[in-house]
Write a structure and sequence with these properties.
Pfam families: Asparaginase_2
Keywords: Autocatalytic cleavage, Hydrolase, Protease
Number of helices: 8
CATH architecture: 4-Layer Sandwich
Radius of gyration: 17 Å
GO molecular function: hydrolase activity, acting on carbon-nitrogen (but not peptide) bonds, in linear amides; peptidase activity
Mean pLDDT: 94
Largest sheet: 9 strands, mixed
Protein name: Isoaspartyl peptidase
Structural class: alpha+beta
Number of domains: 1
Strand content: 15-25%
Organism: Adhaeribacter swui
Amino acid sequence: MNPIAIAIHGGAGTILSALMTPEKEVMYRQALQEAVEVGHQILLQGKSSLEAVEAAVRNLEDCILFNAGRGSVFTHEGKHEMDAAIMYGATGMAGAVAGVRQVRNPITLAKTVMQHSEHVLLVGDGAEIFGRSLDLAFEPDSYFFDTARHEQWLAALKADQVVLDHSALPEATTDRKFGTVGAVAVDQFGNVAAATSTGGMTNKKFNRIGDSPIIGAGTYAHNATCAVSCTGHGEYFMRAVVAYDVACLIEYKGLSLAEACHYVVHDKLVKQGGEGGLIAINQLGDIVLSFNSEGMYRASKKNQEPTYVGIYK
């Protein structure tokens, strides 16, 4: 039987223990462990990697600590516009949504686009109409309200800044966190999958979309190479087509998963000024959690090995 494994991330950036209260750190670690173990349990039941990554990301979307789903940051208009994508390495099928509002679980809407439409990417009102037509869960704006996010939005409005960090005020520029959640997994059949979800940037304007819902940029999966989910400054990840670049280095240059991830994250991205990280997995169950920032919320679990949870470098 093929090894089963799953990895998740909850965002990357300047995440320092000195800036984290012990209580908050415990909350993050518990949330990460719960999400990765939810996905791992699905793999243990013999279900697909696609189901596992969706379940893990749904769990993170339901947690207000992370900038996705319920914990999404505020846009310039004081709303929540969410993006998500999912891809299955066995078939190359993918689904994504961008700029959606009031959707409880954008990752499930993305999976629904993949499985119940002829399209890959739906945006805004159209994506919402599609989701409602298939009875997906929607929530009022109050469901997505968080006091800390709201205070950050007010500060960003006052400073007229678009803020990458999803917890500190804009003047605290040393504390940048790129709020995205994601999961990658391989199931007992050797099929890989990737899923990514985000609330984007605080105070973002003009319906800005990042890399998360762009297949090949923030999310990618192919059985022959790997599954990748990214987190970072989306503009850089889109320009560098990061997720697909990792897969290409494996396919065309024969690099290992670890070598490909290291080259993209610590060489190519750094040279372009891009900060953040990614998680990746292959058919063998190899897991890479790579980031060039001070930290990345992350967790992984392979077979019956102990669950790994990390935050700092």
